[in-house]
Design a protein that fits this description.
By secondary structure, this protein is of the alpha/beta class. It is built from seven helices and seven strands. A seven-stranded mixed beta sheet has the order 1-3-4-2-5-6-7, with helices on both faces.
Length: about 280
């Protein structure tokens, strides 16, 4: 394959500064504000089928990745919460779509959807096929889906299964309907030369999806070293609904509820998710 140019629609985010920074007494920086926003993530609901997911008018961001690619760890690191996303002791066994609200409690402005990990060998073939169908349908038809964050192990790059998942959502990415951000996880395990090569190979894959309308980003990511964390938080916050739009959606949702539901809390804040 000839070397393709990186996607032009969105340059790769710069890695975060690795040197500890002094405490500032002035206003919070954009990165600090984005991390504070990501920390507001809280569990909303879980579903085994697409039909069980609530209708949603907020931007919905799906987190996807192979089992052992570090998806749950990345979500927990972004949210600065130890157990927001449930990481099963047996990879591939968590087979639900878990939704989280972000932003103000009375007017959330984004949803995160944690999709099951894929590609784990110990999972029965019937379960693999069932979840392949569920994930394909979700990526192809979920109306509120506005962004996908795909975790790729930086040491191995895009596998056949990773490429197959991209095919499910490719038409929506190429049309600009759905944004795509690829995190090359576990980047702390690579030296500088290996990291540059991992980026180059991933950019070649993503260049095949790039169009004038597409919004595609890529960054090295390390939960251990916190590399790329604030960059990703900034991007996700940019994808959130505006304050005015979030308040409008919250008001419409409130008006649609029966009176006995108006004072009911939306979910636990940062608790463990069901198995």
């Amino acid at each position: 394959m000839s070397r393709a140019t990186p996607p032009k629609s969105k340059p790769a985010p710069r890695p975060v500064h690795k040197t500890p920074q002094p405490t500032r007494s002035g206003p919070a920086s954009p990165a600090q504000q984005a991390l504070a926003w990501a920390h507001s993530a809280r569990f909303l609901t879980t579903a085994a089928q697409i039909e069980q997911l609530p209708v949603n008018d907020l931007p919905e961001i799906a987190f996807v990745g192979r089992s052992n690619a570090g998806k749950s760890t990345a979500i927990n690191t972004l949210a600065q919460q130890r157990q927001l996303a449930y990481a099963s002791k047996t990879p591939g066994r968590t087979q639900h779509i878990n939704l989280f609200h972000l932003g103000p409690r009375d007017a959330p402005n984004q949803l995160w959807a944690d999709l099951p990990g894929y590609g784990y060998a110990a999972v029965e073939r019937s379960a693999k096929l069932r979840w392949q169908v569920v994930m394909a349908r979700y990526l192809e038809i979920r109306r509120s889906l506005s962004g996908v964050v795909q975790m790729i192990d930086s040491r191995h790059g895009f596998t056949d299964l990773d490429r197959q998942l991209l095919e499910f959502v490719a038409p929506r990415v190429q049309s600009g309907e759905v944004k795509l951000l690829v995190l090359l996880t576990k980047a702390d395990k690579l030296n500088r030369k290996e990291a540059a090569e991992s980026l180059r190979k991933a950019q070649e894959v993503l260049a095949e999806l790039s169009t004038e309308e597409s919004d595609i980003g890529i960054t090295l990511f390390s939960a251990l070293k916190k590399q790329g964390v604030s960059d990703v938080a900034l991007i996700l916050q940019e994808w959130a609904a505006s304050t005015e739009e979030a308040q409008r959606i919250a008001q419409e949702r409130l008006m649609a509820l029966p009176p006995e539901f108006e004072d009911r809390d939306e979910g636990e804040d940062g608790g463990d998710l069901p198995d």
